[in-house]
Write a structure and sequence with these properties.
This protein is an all-alpha fold and about 290 residues long. The protein is built from seven helices and two strands. It has a two-stranded antiparallel sheet with strand order 1-2. The longest helix has about 70 residues. The two termini are about 35 Å apart.
Length: about 290
């Protein structure tokens, strides 16, 4: 039984350490990116505050009813403010990572939009040149064959030039679309969610980061408090076992050092006795002085 309690305590402590450590890491480096001019100083300051926040939360849980109201209030406000600072640091870290992953994607997307607009403009220019040529030819009499030929010769280079530019733009657009597919692998889930909810990628990522920061540091504080609670319960159980063993020791007059097997035996006997007492029927006196259950 004691081994199970210790294992569970270690599990809660490890969970608290992992979550709190991860939150501290993301927050410290997120704040250092925000104040990049004094990066080392910010890392030292933010790291100290993260450690102090956890200690303050543990202190408040264990000594809530014994410390002064002023100190209790100040530490509570400090812990809450530090939770918000940690969340802001995590937001900065994750948003910076997102921007780094999507920088090339956004650049290529902007270029693609420009190329598509340029292609549309060239298509309109081509249609305009053809219409202008038709109008110019129709304005000449039918017997002006040489003039019409010369007019076509003047317009053909312009049309060919536009066609060459259209082919070039189409090739560039095709290359950009292939590059977008390769780059979009890094932000593929965000693109898919944006399409599902019919919104842009930035909005999806923003709400996803908010969900993470609302869970991250509050979960770390909760696990630290839970670890303190488990430690207090374990301490209480050990004290009860020691009391039981002292009673057993006085009864059997054992004077040799306590062994683990003896403690387990004592606990097992006490548990069995409690089960037997709970299983015994309660004898009551009924009417006429007869015994009944």
């Amino acid at each position: 039984m004691l081994e199970k309690v210790k294992n569970f305590t270690s599990l809660v402590g490890l969970s608290a350490l992992l979550v709190a450590g991860s939150a501290a890491f993301f927050s410290v480096f997120g704040l250092s990116k925000l104040f990049s001019g004094a990066q080392l100083s910010v890392i030292i300051m933010a790291g100290s505050l993260e450690f102090t926040k956890l200690v303050a939360a543990s202190f408040l849980y264990q000594y809530w009813y014994t410390v002064s109201k002023v100190l209790r209030t100040y530490l509570s406000i400090g812990v809450v403010v530090l939770v918000f600072i940690t969340s802001a640091g995590i937001f900065g870290y994750l948003s910076n990572a997102y921007q780094g992953a999507t920088l090339v994607f956004e650049k290529e997307t902007t270029t693609l939009f420009y190329k598509e607009d340029r292609l549309e403009q060239l298509e309109e220019d081509k249609v305009y040149l053809k219409e202008e040529l038709v109008q110019s030819l129709s304005s000449l009499p039918d017997n002006y064959i040489t003039a019409k030929r010369k007019l076509r010769e003047d317009y053909n280079p312009k049309v060919l030039l536009v066609n060459d530019e259209i082919l070039k733009i189409k090739q560039e657009i095709g290359d950009l679309k292939v590059a977008l597919i390769e780059t979009g692998v890094d932000v593929g889930p965000a693109i898919y969610l944006a399409r599902v909810f019919n919104t842009d990628i930035d909005t999806v990522v923003k709400f996803f980061i908010f969900i993470l920061i609302f869970v991250f540091d509050p979960m770390a504080i909760s696990l630290v408090i839970a670890y303190n609670r488990v430690l207090l319960d374990e301490k209480s159980k050990v004290e009860n076992v020691n009391k039981i063993f002292e009673m057993y020791k006085r009864k059997s007059k054992i004077k040799k050092p306590v062994e683990k097997e003896v403690v387990d035996k004592v606990v097992k006997e006490e548990v069995e006795e409690e089960k037997v007492e709970e299983a015994q029927p309660v004898i009551t006196l009924g009417k006429g002085g007869r015994a009944g259950k």
